[in-house]
Amino acid sequence: MKKIILVFLLFFTLFASAQKFQNLAMTPPMGWNSWNKFQCNVSEKLIREAADELVSTGMRDAGYQFVVIDDCWQVGRDSMGFIVPDPIRFPSGIKALADYIHAKGLKFGIYSCAGTKTCAGRPGGRGHEFQDAYMYAKWGVDYLKYDWCSSNGQDQKESYKLMSSMLKEAGHPIVFSLCEWGSSKPWEWAGEVGHLWRTTGDIFDCFDCEKKYDSWSAWGVMKILDMQKDMRQYAGPGHWNDPDMLEVGNGGMTENEDRAHFSMWCMLAAPLMAGNDLKSMSPQTQAILTNADVIAVNQDVLGVQGLKYKSEDGLETWLKPLKGGDWALCFLNRSSESKMIEFDWTKNVVSDPVSNRKLDASAEVFKIKDLWTKKELGNTQKALKAEVKSHDVLMVRLSLSKK
Ligand code: GLA
């Protein structure tokens, strides 16, 4: 009898702990991360202020949930091997910061690395995986971004699987963000290991440039967009392709380029991690980051990554199937001149093999709404005619109106 009770208890405990990790990141994670704007210049003051600003700017209510400290919060390990946060920059400790963030109705994220050192040369997680996972659980960390620097000789799959199982073992539900820059095609294997995985090297705050460093390059948003090929079938609720964090509002792009960047990340069902200084955010940046209609495309419960349907002379047409038979359409003008579009629905019947959905606006009638100007643009019984400015988008939602 005792044995039966023990076996039952064991199964119950395993089941209860597995349950805690289910249903995380069922839509692409949204939040703010310190790296793109502040790099190593992080402190508890900065992170608290970011949390305050997420609330006061309406971003929390628009869906931005995670406040993530990226690299440089950590300075060493103690004699027992436990990670030591920077005592000067984080004098109240990480737990107090997590509590502050939680009290605002937000979630707290942190950064580490699967190698021996982080990309900024701070202590990495290698050899300390359970100790670190245990610390994160104790602090109440809800999100971990795990990088890939100083990982010579390590295997991506093994390293990330190890940390994933340690996080589960530690028992606090946590969104696990893999950041090995697409080096081992994580979309093919990481669905069970983490909730999102970077697909490329780092983003750079420009529309279409390459920023060369000694041994690597960072990429403008159009370059990153072009690298998101042949992987849409791997994205879905609980597991997302991550084309890197947002550069919206960081000054390297014009307002229309920022809008195009944000729209395309929403079409891709990409995680939306704002990376700008929220304290000095312009009204234009705030309007881009909090556009509820555009965010609704990103957060749609079907979780289908958008599809590039056409590319002609610098003008791309992207589609994303949405719940209730709706679709999002985004016309992206990558060229340096304004373009007129004329989209005839009867000539553009599209089948999407990933979602098994077909857009046939000649058989079904859809209402059309411009998600940036908020104007109703009639329905799909007439061809859609509009101007799309250079480096800008026309993004619309098609809502099924009658059969
Ligand atoms: C790598 C990551 C970046 C950032 C830095 C921190 O480059 O890809 O997103 O986390 O490390 O050092």
Structure description:
- With 403 residues, this protein is α/β, with parallel strands linked by helices.
- The chain folds into two domains: 20-298, TIM Barrel (Alpha-Beta Barrel); 307-401, Immunoglobulin-like.
- It is 27% helix and 25% strand.
- The chain has helices at residues 2-20, 35-38, 44-56, 59-62, 93-103, 129-139, 156-170, 221-226, 255-267, 283-289, 292-298; strands spanning 30-33, 66-68, 74-77, 83-85, 107-113, 143-147, 175-178, 196-198, 210-212, 217-219, 240-242, 272-274, 307-312, 315-321, 327-333, 339-343, 350-352, 357-359, 365-370, 376-379, 384-388, 392-402.
- The strands form six sheets. Strands 11-8-7-6-5-2-1-12 form an eight-stranded parallel beta sheet.
- Strand 9 and strand 10 form a beta hairpin.
- The longest helix has 19 residues, at 2-20.
- The mean pLDDT is 96.
- The structure holds alpha-D-galactopyranose.
Summarize the structure.
Helix content is 27%, strand content 25%.
Q: How are the SSEs ordered, and which strands pair?
A:
Layout: H1 2-20, E1 30-33, H2 35-38, H3 44-56, H4 59-62, E2 66-68, E3 74-77, E4 83-85, H5 93-103, E5 107-113, H6 129-139, E6 143-147, H7 156-170, E7 175-178, E8 196-198, E9 210-212, E10 217-219, H8 221-226, E11 240-242, H9 255-267, E12 272-274, H10 283-289, H11 292-298, E13 307-312, E14 315-321, E15 327-333, E16 339-343, E17 350-352, E18 357-359, E19 365-370, E20 376-379, E21 384-388, E22 392-402
Parallel strand pairs: 1-2, 1-12, 2-5, 5-6, 6-7, 7-8, 8-11
Antiparallel strand pairs: 3-4, 9-10, 13-14, 14-15, 15-22, 16-21, 17-18, 19-20, 19-22
Helix pairs in contact: 3-5, 6-7, 9-10, 9-11
